[in-house]
Amino acid sequence: MNPVTVRDFEKIKGLSELRAAPDGRHAVFCVTQADIQDNCYKSHLELLDVETGETRPLTAADGRGYVFADDGKSVLFPALRDPADKKAVESGEELTVFYRLPLAGGEAREAFRIEAQVKKLESLGGGKWLVSHLCDLTRPDLTGLKPGKRAQVLARWKKESEEFHVVDELPFWFDGRGFVNKKRTCLSVFSEQTGALVPLTTPAMDVGAYVLAPDKKSVVFAGNDVKGWRISDEGLYSVSLPGGETETLVPLGGQSFDRLVFWQDRLVIAGSVGGEKMDMNSSKLYTYNVQSHRMELAFDPDEDLGASVTCEASMGGEPMRTVGGDILLVTGSEYRGRLSAWKPGETALRRISPETLCVLSFEQVGSRLLAVGFTGSGLQEVYDVTGGQARALTSVNQGTFDGVPVPEPLSFVNSGGVRIDGWVLKPADYQKGKKYPGILSIHGGPRGAYCETFSHEMQVLAARGYFVFFCNPRGSATRGNAFADVAARWGTIDYDDLMAFTDEVLRAYPDIDKERLGVTGGSYGGYMTNWVIGHTDRFAAAVTCRSITYLTGFSGVSDLGCWTDLHEQGGLPWKGEQQLRDRSPLFALDKVKTPTLILHSFEDHRCTSPEAYGLYQALIAHGVETRMVLFYGESHGLSRTGQPRHRVRRLEELAGWFDSHLKS
């Protein structure tokens, strides 16, 4: 195996949208891969025979957002293959074109077009579809306008929207989406026969989670009929189909409905209800009886729903759904990411996947239960997990990085008697007795988690001759809510655990040169990097990515600032200024001596660019060697989903900074 290079992330294939084909023998899934030369991500669909494990491409390109057609013999997927359609969308027209492709093979042909930005389709039968789509309330009414006049009105509106924004809601921007003021997610019914799109929800309603009833006669959805403030407060509603009256099931009241699933005669809800304190990542499970209209708390699973561990090229997962109508399957963060079964009335999740497999999403095909996941340091594949065993059905990523170093587990018990789990990745050219620099990597969240999974960034550093070590300090997921609770304690017990882990690593691996240590992290990991360099000078170099410096200011500029500070920091600026100040890295930057590289994105609305500006100016003012690299057109997810060329430059900057400060 050649050393892993900065550009090798384009070899990694992300798997998503695993779905059973109507014939009960096949499944379809989407494969997505970065393309550095074209500076984009390319996707295609694969057809899997679950009996033989054979796969074949369905499409050469496109495929994300596909659905099965009503005939059960073809798939429908959105694409803009006609240059005229691309030009129309670029000019401001709302249009999604769906193509039909036979599962048996052949050419994709246009099936229908919807005059909306479609997010998701779900069949209602008879050529009708439930459509989730974007709505912009600032968009002018184009009804009845001739093409020429329509183009003029659109051009004027588009020009104005590029010149200024009117803000009268909160949140008014959101990471990865930009300005969201007056922008909504709506539900409508589309008819192939008439081409009409009939609204189910009011223009002001912003729809969150929703679920189609098993009889397809109604839709239950969570949403907020926005009047200024619309964050983390949703009602629960039901609307009859094809376009009847809307009934309020649960009124607004300080609650959030993260996931809705019908199970037999009731609705299962993952979320936080009735004004309870809502953790940023965890959800409780509730049941809602559709006959009695009564909602009850089922239980708190004491773990985050969905896999919280870092995973290369993850394209999203499936936290909860029914399979076969008998049981509810839930993915959870316990240890790495398990698949569990649960029935309302039970007070525990019953693991049904092997501990060696981290499950990201799942599907039942005939009598077989399939899952997208990974084992050990491997990359994603589709597995047959029927009977609790994991048998790989695909080899999409097999052999891509054979022979690279594998993280070695290193756990210890801290001074408070709490076990902290960590790992150490040796340099690719490791020779016992030779001294190497080392880098501490800190995950985001804080309610994220590391495991021994493959990390391209860490492998790049290992290939360049670094030990890379990383752990899950208190505040991390996978160990229950009590372990994950560091509210109002950022930079305290988590910092202690990170430093104690560094000490343990140096004791266990004497070939690490303690005079040549680096530290890096992104998001919360960037916050902790900033905190670390202000409270110790044991690190000779630091790289902080998409970080937080000043929590008081964070409240007013982040898309989740007020919400995060209220629940993670215990207060807001006008009532908890001292708490926010005490937990802000900014006020220890006068003590920093560590040369620091700052990597940030201009369009990061989660940890906004002023956080980087303030850090940079403070370090320069105190004579610290500092470099700042800012990326245009990128959001908080630059390192995972950014433009491939920007991801290359980011890694070159990160690795180059450590090379120049830890190797000379």
Automatic annotation (TrEMBL):
UniProt keyword annotation of Cytoplasm present: no
Any one GO MF annotation of this record: serine-type endopeptidase activity
Domain annotation Peptidase S9 prolyl oligopeptidase catalytic: ranges: 453-663
Key words, A-Z: Hydrolase
Superkingdom of the source species: Bacteria
Classification via Pfam families: Peptidase_S9
InterPro entries: AB_hydrolase_fold (IPR029058), Peptidase_S9_cat (IPR001375)
Example of a GO biological process term: proteolysis
Protein name: S9 family peptidase
Biological source species: Candidatus Ventrousia excrementavium
